[in-house]
Each structure stands twice: as structure tokens, then as C-alpha cells.
Design brief:
SPT5, 18% strand, 8 helices, NGN_dom_sf, alpha+beta, NGN-domain, three-stranded antiparallel β-sheet, Unplaced genomic scaffold K443scaffold_10, whole genome shotgun sequence, four-stranded antiparallel β-sheet, mRNA binding, Alpha-Beta Plaits
Length: 240
């Protein structure tokens, strides 16, 4: 070790330990070399070959890489991307609901559901309107509750419901944002559905779509039948 290195190291130790130069000299008559020999590990020779230094560097890098690699957790063996359904899983159903009040129907179901209804979850999808999704066994109690829920579409044969296949369960949890590019106060034309081709005025923009004021569709009069009636009415009756 050079003289400058010893001097710099001793200054650093003095600053950290708060020891004066006088205290360093009082220590049993030990020389600077002996003092630094106790502090620095000099078991290995200072002049190492280039091959030895390269070998140690490679081994150190391998050890660091092994430490950074994630270790396998004991519970990882039980984690699967798609686990098959079990007897404890409830089926997933979708139930028809009136447009615009799907959230109200879900809120009412979650508020009134009891343990005997066997309703584990209820949700709605913003990208698909007119349906609410239920994780339930669809027993007699939940059917009775659905008939009393506002917005649920019910017929003489019962509520309109469809069971979701297990392969599509994860798709039901995927939400798609609907970007409404229609401004309030504009005139638009309906492209799909019952009112396809009708002209409407945008009243409001909602999270699920827009509210339109449609122009009434007037059926054109039947000109052939009206002209025939006129001709018949103009014929004078024969004298008696």
C-alpha cells in the first residue's frame, strides 16, 4: 500500500471515529503497517494474475445473477391461469334488463340478497346494455327476487335468462370503453336497430350511449286505394 493511500485512509478513519492524531500514536507502539494490516484483509497476495482476477469476476457475476432470479414459491404450483370449474363454483347467468337501468337493478339485487338466494356477485358491463350478470345457482328464491327487481324483463314463461359458458367467464370481466363522439344538440341518423334510417336529435350523452328525440315516421298514403275510392264515389246511382 502506498504512503498516500495510507494517509488518506487514516484521515478518513479519524473523521469517522473522532480520534485526534495524538490518540493514534498512543496504542502500544504498533506501527502503521501493523495497524492497517489488521483492518485490510491481506491474506491473498497483492499481485494476482490476470487469469485469476478474471475468474473471480466471472464467478461474482454468476452469483449476483443467481440472486436476482426469482425463486419458485411453494404456492406457485397451485396457481393456474384457467382452473376447471368445481362443485363449489356457481354458474354465471345473464338476465335481460331494460335499457338504462342496469345499474339500478344490480344495486337492488345486492341490497336485497340474502344467504338463501345464493347470489355471490352481480355486475353489468358498460359495453353491453340490456343485460345484468349474476353468479348464482338460479334457484327458486333468486327467481322470485328477480321478478320483484325493477328493470328485470319478465314474461309469462318467466324471466329472460341465459347461462354463460365456462370458456367465456373471463371475457365477461373485460370492459371496453365507449367513446361517444356525438355532441348534444346535433342531428344524427340511426344506423342499426328498430329505428334504422330515422333522423334524431341528440338530447343527452350518457355513459351507455345517447338519448335521441326521433322524428315521427309518417306512413305515406296509399294513392291507388284513394283514387279508386274517388272514382267509385263519382259514379251516379241509376234512377229507380
Amino acid at each position: 500500500m502506498s504512503q498516500e493511500t495510507r494517509r488518506a485512509l487514516r484521515s478518513f478513519l479519524d473523521l469517522e471515529a473522532g480520534v485526534d492524531d495524538d490518540d493514534d500514536e498512543v496504542g502500544g507502539g504498533r506501527s502503521d503497517d501493523e495497524e492497517f494490516d489488521d483492518f485490510i484483509d491481506n491474506d491473498n497476495p497483492a499481485e494476482l494474475g490476470e487469469a485469476k482476477i478474471l475468474e473471480r469476476s466471472v464467478n461474482s457475476g454468476v452469483r449476483n445473477l443467481a440472486l436476482r432470479e426469482p425463486t419458485e414459491h411453494p404456492d406457485d404450483a397451485f396457481v393456474q391461469v384457467r382452473m376447471p370449474p368445481t362443485s363449489r363454483d356457481f354458474p354465471l347467468w345473464r338476465v335481460a334488463c331494460r335499457l338504462g337501468i342496469e345499474e339500478e337493478a344490480v344495486f337492488s339485487l345486492l341490497q336485497l340478497a340474502a344467504p338463501w338466494h345464493e347470489l355471490r356477485s352481480a355486475f353489468t358491463r358498460g359495453s353491453i346494455r340490456g343485460w345484468v350478470y349474476l353468479e348464482t345457482t338460479m334457484n327458486e328464491h333468486i327467481n322470485r327476487l328477480l321478478k320483484l327487481t325493477p328493470g328485470i324483463v319478465s314474461r309469462r314463461t318467466g324471466i329472460i335468462r341465459e347461462q354463460i359458458d365456462f370458456e367465456d367467464w373471463t371475457k365477461m370481466l373485460t370492459m371496453h370503453d365507449i367513446e361517444a363522439n356525438v355532441d348534444v344538440g346535433r342531428w344524427v341518423r340511426v344506423r342499426k336497430g328498430t329505428y334504422k334510417g330515422d333522423v334524431g336529435y341528440v338530447l343527452a350523452s350518457e355513459s351507455w350511449g345517447v338519448r335521441l328525440l326521433l322524428v315521427p315516421r309518417l306512413s305515406p298514403p296509399n294513392l291507388a286505394s284513394s283514387s279508386l275510392k274517388r272514382k267509385r264515389s263519382t259514379v251516379a246511382p241509376e234512377p229507380a
